[in-house]
Amino acid sequence: MVLVMQEDQLVDSIDKLLLKALKKRASDIHFEPYQQSYRIRMRIDGVLHTILVPPLTLAKQIVARLKIMAKLNIAEQRLPQDGQLVIDRYAMRISTLPVMNGEKVVLRVLDNHDSPLSIHDLGFTDRDLAQFQQILNHPQGLILVTGPTGSGKTVTLYSGLKTLNLPHCNICSVEDPIEIPVEGINQTSVNMKIGLSFATILRALLRQDPDVMMIGEIRDHETAEIAIQAAQTGHLVLSTLHTNSSIEAITRLNQMGIERYLISASVKLIIAQRLVRKLCCHCKVVASELIRLGQKPIPHYVAIGCENCVGGYSGRIGLYEFLTITPEIQHQILNQQVITPSNQISLRQSAEQLIQQGITTLAEINRVLGET
User: Fold this and answer.
1) Which is nearest to 239 in space by CA: 312, 327, 175?
2) Whether the Cβ atoms of residue 276 and residue 368 lie closer than 8 Å to each other
3) Residue 214 near residue 171, CB atoms below 8 Å
4) How far apart are CA 19 and CA 88, in angstroms?
5) Which entry of 32, 77, 262, 345 is 20 to 30 Å from 208 by CA?
């Protein structure tokens, strides 16, 4: 017997599901068809959780409803489609993909202006915050934020841009796509279908009298070259790279064909970052055993779980590794030496501080950074 849900029932069920995901602070919602089952999962604080396993016979109805909400072509099931839908004033980006047993749909919850995007809320130490603010006030240079997808790089960049977003400052950005609309910033989205690439937009932006430029991601030699050129000709440039550490960003730029003398002259600050889940303040408890960090056994908290959290965790906090390009670091870059920053706090050291403060757990740190 094929189970079919009435249209009004389906509409109501999907609306309730999406609102439930928003209430739980989900960043992504996955609708996945398999040979014998259908699964709906949501990503909360960076971790996927299964929330519903509806009958497989409802798969096509669910996908069709989501496509209608996003004004996509419901008859096209062979090609990927992208769009956007809105529910309860919340915008979501939709992506469909043909898979072996039907179509997979992923919804990405876009920024809806709930966050003030203040650099004071990122979790920087006082020293790191002072460094970031100081370099944001430089008239020119390149600030890079590195890390994997989903590590909060865009939020860090926009927190910096909001600090600079004043009437006397012309801020332009090029992104793929625009994730956080901000009043007062001239934002342009990449559109490869019509040849509107990062490089094409950047060349046009340089003729728009910018003071500050934000590049969503440096992906290739051409984009890197324009970013470096802009950073040396009176512009402050902020961008991201996909590297595991701050030092690796220098190697990556060199591999993209940027000469070392240009890197040393233009790059001012590199921030490597990750996001880790925070323990729920309502139910965290001190563990019965000690853990060893370095040579020192210390007490620590563990996740229990309650109605206020998901599996003992609620919200996330950033881990940061700052590499300020001092004259000493410039000399090491120019002479192809091993870069050895003095007094740098690594991502692992930053994580250990959060464990000692009872903010997160060793298990969560190992999940994000890998075990050592």
Assistant:
1) 175
2) yes
3) yes
4) 8
5) 262
- Residues 267 and 250: their CA atoms lie apart, in Å, by 9
Report CA torsion sign: 270, 274, 279, 281. Answer: positive
Given a contact cutoff of 8 angstroms between Cβ atoms, the answer to whether 299 and 355 are in contact is no
Pairing of strands 285-286, 301-302: antiparallel
The angle, 0 to 180 degrees and rounded to 10, between the axes of the packed helices 198-205 and 221-232 is 20
Q: Is 342 exposed, middle or buried (0-12, 13-18, 19+ CB in 10 A)?
A: exposed
Task: Report the range of poorest mean pLDDT among 81-95, 103-117, 317-331.
Answer: 103-117
SS3 172: strand
Which band of pLDDT confidence, cut at 50, 70 and 90, is reported for residue 2? very low
Confidence check: pLDDT of 84 > 70:
yes
> 37: which residues sit within 8 A by CB, 6+ positions away?
53, 56
151-172 average pLDDT score: 94
- Distance from C-alpha of 177 to C-alpha of 191, rounded to nearest angstrom: 9
* Tens of pLDDT, residues 347-370: 999 999 999 999 999 999 999 999
**pLDDT digit string (tens) for 281-329?**
999 999 988 888 877 888 889 988 999 999 999 999 999 999 999 999 9
- For residue 29, the tally of other CB atoms under 10 A from its CB is 23
DSSP state letters, 333-360: HHTTPPP--TTPPPHHHHHHHHHHTTSS
